[in-house]
Design goal:
With about 450 residues, the protein is mostly helical. The protein is about 75% helix and about 0% strand.
Length: about 450
């Protein structure tokens, strides 16, 4: 889309404001699609397949996409050399959405020769969908960074996060109500049919989200972005000490989160008896809370800095596993406290990309963006798979701590998750979030 620009090829102020509004619309529509085709929905579909080693299966759904996400390290070399950021972003997002359309039908129970084959197909397509989405996100973050100057970027990201969580929250609640209503009205229908319809609708919203994104103008960008990243620029993030400190924290947080995922997703359904509707309603409440605080947290990040906001939010987030530890079938309500504490993830969701963009030199930001998400994603994948295998091996065992306290595997996993998240605060103290006046974005 052609637009009038200043003589140096940059956008005028009113054009940047319009572009940011379009970015909000894109985030809202994409979030609705994500809410309708959520990871929770896919996990409930996997649980209905009847495949063996479901702990590993859940781990693969959550983690394998991050393994293939390492391929996003090649995105900087493609962006600019073969196609510009805008077309690369739109093309990869469209391809990802088309794959999502076919995923529930191909992996539905009974479609393939065995439950294990269905689970393998589900994991494979889920990975490919996320790989394309992740590669597009590398271009998107570089693109969005040029829409908002550093002085207001925290507020921009906070407002966009508000639309993201509002869209996802509403869509997840509607999805849960739809599945519940469908299964009540058509009890003889296979339960997986109720999962296919919202997933297909979610793909439709994701396609609609590309319309406002297509209206965002191309921007005058650096030589590296226009002509493709070199191998030297791709390796540059690993030699940047301040960026490595951010990467260390991102890896620690990913490891702490991933280790308990199989237990965390299995426990509500398998032990507490929580339905999909209740689970999605709880997640909706969390996202509504995040939508309420995200703009304010973005403002605080611009005023106080990102690190203080992240430290406070991480301390709250770390308490979540303790509520799972207290929850039992007779007193299941305790697990609601975890989702209340996880509203504080809003601060990390706003501040982490803000710091990443601040520490990425404007002349070559795509290698930094790709490296951060690829390496932290790999850490999340490794810890999630390890947690899934431990879950399958130890979920029926009793573990004795300090020679005195006997706990089951769920309790052990939640206690370990609490300790690991709390220790992340110490790692976060090492973060230096500025590059200096010369290199600042």
């Amino acid at each position: 889309m052609a637009t009038a620009t200043d003589s140096d090829g940059t956008l005028r102020i009113f054009q940047r404001r319009r572009a940011r509004r379009l970015a909000y619309w894109n985030g809202a529509l994409w979030a609705i699609g994500n809410g309708l085709a959520s990871t929770t929905l896919i996990i409930y579909l996997a649980l209905d397949l009847g495949a063996g080693r479901i702990g590993l299966g859940i781990g693969l759904i959550l983690a394998a996409r991050h393994v293939v996400g390492l391929l996003r390290l090649g995105a900087p070399a493609v962006i600019g050399r073969l196609v510009d950021r805008k077309r690369f972003c739109l093309g990869t997002y469209l391809a990802a959405t088309l794959i999502l359309l076919g995923l529930p039908w191909i992996a539905a129970p009974g479609r393939l020769s065995s439950p294990d084959a269905s689970l393998a197909a589900l994991v494979g397509l889920w990975c490919l969908y996320h790989l394309l989405q992740y590669m597009g996100t590398v271009a998107l973050w570089s693109w969005l960074a040029d829409l908002a100057p550093p002085a207001i970027r925290g507020r921009f990201l906070g407002r966009r996060q508000l639309w993201l969580v509002l869209g996802e929250a509403g869509a997840m609640l509607c999805c849960g109500l739809f599945v519940w209503g469908w299964q009540a009205l058509y009890p003889r229908q296979p339960s997986w049919v109720a999962y296919v319809i919202p997933a297909a609708m979610g793909a439709g919203f994701m396609i609609a989200a590309l319309v406002p994104l297509a209206a965002v103008p191309r921007l005058a960008v650096s030589r590296i972005v226009r002509f493709g990243a070199t191998w030297r620029s791709i390796r540059a993030p690993l030699g940047d000490e301040r960026f490595l400190r951010l990467l260390l924290f991102g890896c620690w947080l990913s490891l702490a989160n991933g280790l308990t995922q199989s237990a965390q997703f299995s426990y509500p359904k398998q032990v507490l008896g929580i339905t999909l509707l209740t689970m999605l309603a709880v997640q909706t409440g969390m996202r509504l809370g995040q939508s309420a605080v995200s703009p304010r947290l973005g403002w605080l990040a611009d005023r106080w800095g990102n690190r203080p906001v992240m430290i406070g939010c991480l301390l709250l987030v770390a308490q979540g596993p303790l509520f799972y530890l207290l929850a039992t079938p007779l007193h299941w309500q305790w697990f609601l406290g975890a989702w209340l504490a996880w509203i504080a993830y809003a601060g990390l969701n706003v501040c982490l990309p803000n710091v990443m963009l601040k520490l990425s030199p404007r002349e070559a930001d795509t290698p930094y963006i790709a490296t951060y998400y690829a390496v932290t994603g790999l850490c999340y994948a490794a810890s999630t798979l390890a947690g899934g295998m431990l879950f399958d091996r130890c979920r029926y065992e009793t573990i004795v701590l300090f020679g005195r306290w006997a706990v089951d595997y769920y309790q052990y996993a939640f206690l370990l998750g609490w300790i690991a998240r709390c220790e992340g605060v110490l790692v976060l103290w090492l973060l230096i979030e500025t590059r200096g006046r010369a290199a600042a974005r």
